[in-house]
Amino acid sequence: MKNSNLKIQQNLYPPKPRSFFEKGGAREGEQGPITRIQGLPEPKRKIIFWLVIVIIGLGLLTFYVKNVQKRLKGLELEKFKEGLPLPSGKELEGLPKIEIPKLPKGILK
Quick one: where's region Disordered (predicted)? Predict the structure, then answer.
């Protein structure tokens, strides 16, 4: 009697939805992609891992390069040069020259 009551009570609640990545796969009797990869030998898993890393890296690199190109096209060089406090040629001529002492050959070894 207790067993039949227990079965009736268990059926009152709907079954918990299964995740696509749970063991056993998305559907009953099928294996999910993660479960299949986990069942492969370690060298094959490493190859799959590094392929995924390389593909993601190439995607991010492409996004970065396009973003840099977009910023460089929007940069106005003339305004940028005017904003920099670079010394003119006359100011550079007035600076003292720096003399570099000559060291004997064996001292740097």
Answer: 1-36
